[in-house]
Design a protein that fits this description.
Elements: E1 2-6, H1 9-19, E2 23-25, E3 28-31, E4 34-38, E5 44-46, H2 49-52, E6 73-75, H3 79-94, E7 97-101, H4 106-118, E8 125-127, H5 135-143, E9 146-147, H6 152-180, H7 193-208, E10 214-222, E11 225-229, H8 235-244, H9 262-272, E12 277-289, H10 297-308, H11 312-324, H12 346-351, H13 357-360, H14 398-413, E13 419-430, E14 433-444, E15 478-479, E16 482-489, H15 498-506, H16 515-521, H17 529-541, E17 545-548, E18 551-554, H18 556-564, H19 568-571, H20 573-587, H21 593-612, H22 625-636, H23 640-643, H24 682-689, E19 702-704, E20 708-711, E21 721-723
Parallel strand pairs: 1-4, 1-7, 7-8
Antiparallel strand pairs: 2-3, 3-4, 5-6, 8-9, 10-11, 10-16, 11-14, 12-13, 12-15, 13-14, 17-18, 19-20, 20-21
Helix pairs in contact: 4-6, 6-20, 6-21, 10-11, 10-15, 11-14, 15-17
Amino acid sequence: MRVCIAEKPSVAKEIAEVLGAKVRRNGYFEGNDYCVTWTFGHLCSLQEPHEYTEKWRQWNLSMLPMIPSSFRIKLIDDDGIKRQFAIIEELFNRAEMVINCGDAGQEGELIQRWVLTKAKCKAPVMRLWISSLTEEAIREGFSKLKDQAEFQSLYEAGLSRAMGDWLLGMNATRLYTLKYGQNKQVLSIGRVQTPTLALIVNRQLEIANFEPKQYWELKTNYRNTTFSALIRKSDEEIAAEEEKNGGKKKIDNPGIDPIANREEGEALVERIKDLPFVVTNVGKKDGKEYAPRLFDLTSLQVECNKKFAYSADETLKLIQSLYEKKVATYPRVDTTFLSDDIYPKCPAILKGLRDYEVLTAPLAGTTLLKSKKVFDNSKVTDHHAIIPTGVYAQNLTDMERRVYDLIARRFIAVFYPDCKISTTTVMGEVDKIEFRVTGKQILEPGWRVVFAKEVKDPTEEKEEEDENVLPAFVKGESGPHIPDLNEKWTQPPRPYTEATLLRAMETAGKLVDNDELRDALKENGIGRPSTRAAIIETLFKRNYIRKERKNLIATPTGVELVQLIHEELLKSAELTGIWEKKLREIEKKTYDARQFLEELKQMVSEIVMSVLSDNTNRRITIQDAVAAKAEEKEKKEPKKRERKPSTPKEKKPKAEKTTNEVKTDSPGSPAPVAMAASTPSAAGEVDAFVGQPCPLCGKGTIIKGKTAYGCSEWRNGCTFRKNF
């Protein structure tokens, strides 16, 4: 008898159907010489500190660092898990062969290996490795089963991650809680969690400390087209560009000096207003725009947050559901490329997209494009980019449909021709002051038709030209113009949204738009695509961050915690990214797992010594999530109470359970703790804000209105506003 073990019951059911194991038993399916059973995600976890030695049960600074001589796993203390494990154990004892059908990734491998280890499985183990749950993919996977030994490095990477999270999470959490907490409040520290929080806090401090600077732009309107005056680059900018070019090419630096004050700008306006505008050059350059990349998990989460305001966690659950419904491929991927073996399957996948026949019809019967920007074996490791499977997508929820639509359109678009564009640059001059305007015209929409709001037949007339298409200018023409001086202020960086935070986690804090550069930085990203959503959710649950519309805002607790931590290794995204890179190298067999653990142990010991040597009396007061929500509600609903309508009784918030341990970044770690805390006065925070210098203009001070804060210089044009 062959025993298959999947990661969840729904996946087990799909596999059992294909294998002919159609008899439902208690905890497994049986038939055709197969038994197909399942886990519920993690059945096992690393043991808690007191399970290694009783002296670690008590939280005591003298017991730190806690470093087990060897890590041990345990069965999670849950009656349902214990019952299912007993069934799995009994099946393993009867098995001639065990087939690991866990999710084909690092976490999936870890989940199943721990169960195999805990059950003391003696039968030979094979590995099912598939990217979708279609019948075809399952059958193909079973015809090409791999030896479990081939995935040893994948398991070692997952195990190293779990042990690393335990070492840092358990020790740092106890260390900071005992040293800096008060009223038995737990200060949760995590290997990925804390650097992510630091990204948000540091961005927030940048915004708070930002000093806006005034500047002026000289523009002029000629033939209903706005031209901007060229501004000369600084010596530093020139030096940077020359260094980038290896000093081989001298950088041209035309234009006027930056306009330092209004008087200088108005003098320029007076100088040129009665003189003719002369067109000095009309340049036209044809080019191409390539279709957007296929989705990896992070880019899908980013797009869903931008378009639909879905959280990273919501998007992960939706794409997981689409995967289990067989309409999309494996979601927990970090590549935007497909392997060459997928290319022959693409016509059938396109044919299966029945709701997109208007878009797929022009591709039917043709040789599909095979671009290196889409198909590249060297860019694919475990899994390829997220694409449709070709199974008809029906019975989807509205939210699932939106996500599926994004995936389907991206897939269709990569087989369309490139979008052909024409970029026109027009130069002009007034009294030796140079002006420029650039416009773009779409000559052939190509793949753009796939993303049109109203899908039209591509064989019909071309779409209308873009709005920024310029009139026809001729070199040498001249005429009257209307110059203008625009007052501007430098703007602070924007707060993180979930979309931009995911990108920052992916690239260790470096926000870049270029796809190629982003790919290079992924090696040092913090967290994994599959865990980043959970990390962000953890920060919410622990009341370290909150959401204002789409913006992520660090709470006073989150800010204080990051400012309290002086050890850069605990909060630096870049340094944490280096550790993440080592984990990926373990997976690739280019780095030793034992060395990773030894380095981490050394780091933990150094952090403990550093914090214990701190003689200050610093303390953090934590506002718990329940109190924060109540306070927020009180702020939002003062007027409703004046009406005194008959309202239903409010439900009392459920008290959260408390435990002795804190959850680390690892999914298999002990459960989090929620401790009661005193609530700081909201009134104190509000009053402190009034009278502060305006962060926008720097001239006025913050004043309080009926519904928002504003600037005392509002009559003079300052637009600063912050809602209560």
